[in-house]
Each structure stands twice: as C-alpha cells, then as structure tokens.
C-alpha cells in the first residue's frame, strides 16, 4: 500500500488489486474515521476525500486510520439493493454463449442468478463497474469496439458487467437491454448505481 497526498484535501491510496480496494472501502465505511468526507474507489486505488479545512494533524490521523483498516479482515457492508429488468436479446448473446461454453439460456440464468456489486464508477456519468457475479461469465472485450452502443445496453467484459447509461462508443459484449435510467441530472443522487450498491438483474419480456 502507498498513501499519497492528492491536492490539499485528499489522499490517494494505492493497493494491489480490486479486492484490496473493496476490502479497504468496506473497512473505512464501517469505521468512519473522523476527517473523511467521501471515499471514491477505482480499480486499484481509493481516493479518500478529507473534510475541508482538515489540518496536517488530522490528515496524519486519517492516513493512520487507512493503514490500520487495511490490515483488519472485514465482512462486506450491506448497502442499497437495486433491481434492473433486462430483455436478454443482445447482439453478442450468442457469442458470449460460445465463448463460455454455455447455452444462451444458461448465460441469462447465470447473469440473473447471483447478485452483483458496484465496485466503482467511471467511463461516462452513471456507468458502474459491477463485480461478484457468476465467474463463468468472464469474457474478453470485443476485438473491435462499436462506434455507438445504445443507452441501456447490458454488457460483459472481463470480470465486470455494466449498463451503458447513454449512447456511446464501447467494446463490451452486449447481452441485453434495459429501460432503467442510470443517470438523471434532475434526480438526487443523479446516478442509480454507486459504489457499494448491490444489483440484481431480472429477466423481462
């Protein structure tokens, strides 16, 4: 682990992998050390945003709390559960079935059969990188990205699943689509999916 200053009001914690990020994120959410305003996870880092006006002594105290929390085994903190209805008619569903050795029906059952967790967000506003699903669904990105992926597309890539909040380029394997609104600037909070949220996908006609 490395704990680095990130401007005047944050610390950037570098760890080995995503599992370490999620463990640290859960630990700090449970402990809630004084001086922390927000936590922003990524694939191998955790940005610890400090309360404005936090002085050097408090910054050092937070850094110590981060280091201590990293060494303590924790269970996962239970957060909000979001259910997303999906029509499993994606352009790459047959290819995903071939790549995994499953039938298309088994791909759908695997995707809906276990809960997923939002590990971190990025790429475009409202896009969550979800982990923890059926390991049989682990597939590589497409060799060639699409110029336009429609909003609401449900996709797989590597260990992740995700839902495209808006129309954008993308190289993930498309297995379905949803009418759920992932990002709405008029909503509070705007993002439907945020780090720590549990997602359950449900098949719909």
UniProtKB/TrEMBL annotation:
Give the protein name, as stated in the record.
Allophanate hydrolase subunit 1
Q: Say if the entry is tagged with keyword Cell inner membrane.
A: no
Span of domain Carboxyltransferase: 1-193
State if Coiled coil is listed as a keyword.
no
- What keywords would UniProt list here? ATP-binding, Hydrolase, Nucleotide-binding
GO MF? ATP binding; hydrolase activity
- Gene3D superfamilies the record matches: 3.30.1360.40, Cyclophilin-like (2.40.100.10)
Q: Which organism is it from?
A: Solihabitans fulvus
């Amino acid at each position: 682990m490395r704990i680095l200053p990130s401007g005047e009001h944050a610390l950037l914690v570098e760890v080995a992998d995503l599992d370490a990020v999620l463990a640290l994120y859960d630990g700090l959410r449970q402990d809630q050390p004084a001086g922390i305003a927000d936590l922003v996870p990524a694939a191998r880092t955790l940005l610890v945003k400090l309360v404005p006006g936090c002085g050097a002594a408090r910054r050092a105290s937070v850094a110590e709390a981060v280091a201590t929390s990293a060494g303590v085994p924790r269970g996962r903190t239970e957060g909000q559960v979001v259910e997303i209805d999906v029509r499993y008619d994606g352009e790459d569903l047959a290819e995903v079935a071939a790549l995994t050795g499953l039938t298309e029906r088994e791909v759908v059952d695997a995707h809906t059969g276990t809960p997923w967790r939002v590990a971190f967000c990025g790429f475009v506003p409202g896009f969550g990188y979800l982990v923890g699903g059926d390991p049989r669904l682990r597939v590589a990105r497409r060799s060639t990205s699409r110029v336009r992926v429609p909003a609401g597309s449900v996709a797989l890539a590597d260990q992740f699943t995700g839902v495209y909040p808006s129309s954008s380029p993308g190289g993930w394997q498309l297995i379905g689509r949803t009418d759920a609104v992932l990002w709405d600037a008029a909503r509070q909070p705007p993002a439907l999916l945020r780090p720590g949220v549990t997602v359950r996908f449900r098949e719909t006609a």
